[in-house]
Amino acid sequence: MGRNRTSTRAGLSVVLCVLCLVVSVWSPQLTARTFSRDDSSLVSTSTVEGRLAVFDDVWETIQQRYYDPKFHGIDWQGKRDVFRPAAARANGTHEFYEVLRQMIGSLKDAHTRVYSPDEKFDWWNPRFITVGLAIREVEGVATVVHIEAGSAAAQTGIRPGDVITKIDDLSVSDLLAKRSDTMRSRTIANILDGAAGTAVKVGWTTRNGKKKSAVLQRYWSQRQLGFNNQRKGDIAVLRLDAFTQTVALDFSKSLPDVLEGATGIILDLRGNGGGDAEAMADVASLFLDEGINLGKFADRSGASFELQTYSKRLWRMPRLAPVKLPLVVLTSETTSSAAEILAAALQSKGRARVIGTGTCGCVLAIRNRHALPDGGILDVSEFDYRTAGGVRLEGAGIKPDELSPLKRSEIYSRLDRSLELARDFLDKAR
After folding, report:
1. Do 354 and 382 touch, CB atoms closer than 8 A?
2. Hey, which residues does 265 pair with through a beta bridge?
3. Which residues of 141-169 are buried (b: 16+ CB within 10 A; e: fewer)?
4. Residues 372, 365: contact at Cβ < 8 Å?
5. Is residue 61 within 8 Å of residue 167, measured between CB atoms?
6. What is the dihedral of CA 416, 273, 392, 300, to 10 degrees?
């Protein structure tokens, strides 16, 4: 088993990213590879022939590589028959890629995604289209949870805690009707999606019930991934945005100084969309003993490999003894992929108390990115994941030990209830 696992891992490039950042998300890797084409060989989606060439490449790649050969019971051939004519009729690249996303969306898989040539997504330097607002479902409604400083949205008077009621005069409640809980969350998170440079009319209700609206432009924004640490008394609060080799290295180097004099740790994974599985394993090695099984990945053929803590290889640094301070992990609906694996491992080993809300349940893995004939990119989930205890997290997520759902009143008052609960727990653990 050990020999097979080693040889399998050496031949893989696996990424666990959903990157539920401000808008969306990523997945584990050994090193992500993106294959490019010479521009002279690219087809154009301005022609029917070009659109069909790209469509067929997308459909066939998923047909051949998707981790579940039964496609969750979906008639994948039937999807081709339905969406191929729509792809041929599409008016422009944006409409064509929307057709592709509708077809792929039937898989209900946050990792299998397609990007047009202008939207190529770099897992390690996430760039995305936004109107300056991040939206989540809070108390059953689409709620603003973040506003980008300096954005046009910030000048409209909209505030975190306000409820989004209309998008281009369409009722949000109607858009969400008959959606499953998982799909509701993803729909809300991406409800303002559209092409950069286009406008969207947003209607919202304020704290005192006033109805307002504004037209906002979509634009490209980039997020810098890293980690943040602060002290709340003698408790260290560590927020990890994602798992990359650079983040894990910087985090491990700074940890001894950050924890100097601390009596407890709060690890905030609420905005962590995943990342490099090996980097996540190295972070886990800072809190768990060596050789702990972090779960197994398996593809459609049954080939598999296990992920383990392995502190001796931690970025070629001297061996670090695992931190033994009391630990709380904070989670939310946007805790995704590799972050869910870490939370599950710390929880199952009794190493940490998990506080917050249930996680995304988005735990599949990508082997390699696939270059499309027009220069676009296709990500295909080629690996399923189960914990060391055999539990499948995809579609289920992590249930916290202490549930702390976000409330609109707390957003308005800037109260972080989950953080306060974590501090109370650690104070009592001393």
Report:
1. no
2. 236, 327
3. bbbbbebbeebebeebebebbbbbbbbee
4. no
5. no
6. 170
C-beta separation of 25 from 273 below 8 A: yes
Q: Is pLDDT at 8 greater than 50 in this prediction?
A: no
Encode 137-164 in three state secondary structure.
Answer: EECCEEEEEEECCCCCHHHCCCCCCCEE
Return d(Cα 309, Cα 290) in angstroms, integer. Answer: 5
Tokens of 344: 């599950």
Specify the CATH number for 32-119; select among 3.40.50, 3.40.30, 3.30.750, 2.20.130.
3.30.750
308-326 pLDDT, tens digit each: 997 555 544 555 678 999 9
Q: What is the pLDDT of residues 44-76, one digit of tens each?
A: 999 999 999 999 999 999 999 999 999 999 999
- Which of these, 136, 186, 195, lies nearest to 164 by C-alpha position? 136
Chain mean position to CA 58: 22
- C-alpha 59/C-alpha 56 separation (Å) is 5
Say how many residues make up the chain: 430
Q: What is the pTM of this model?
A: 0.84
Give residues with Cβ within 8 angstroms of 265, minimum separation 6.
235, 236, 237, 238, 259, 323, 325, 326, 327, 328, 426
Residue 412's pLDDT is 96
Residue 346, amino acid: L
| Residues with Cβ within 8 Å of residue 409, at least 6 apart in sequence | 161, 415
Domain 127-222, CATH number (from 3.40.50.80, 2.30.42.10, 3.10.129.10, 3.40.50.10540): 2.30.42.10
- Residue showing tokens 């099984």: 293
Q: Is 355's pLDDT higher than 50?
A: yes
State whether residue 4 is helix, strand or coil.
helix
Beta pairing class for 327-331 and 264-268: parallel
The order of strands in the sheet holding 327-331 is 227-232, 235-240, 264-268, 327-331, 353-356, 402-403
For the chain, domain boundaries: 32-119, 127-222, 227-429
CATH of the domain spanning 227-429, picked from 2.60.120.260, 3.40.50.1370, 3.40.1190.20, 3.90.226.10 = 3.90.226.10
| Nearest CA among 14, 8, 18 for reference residue 394 | 18
Distance of CA 155 to the CA centre of its chain: 28
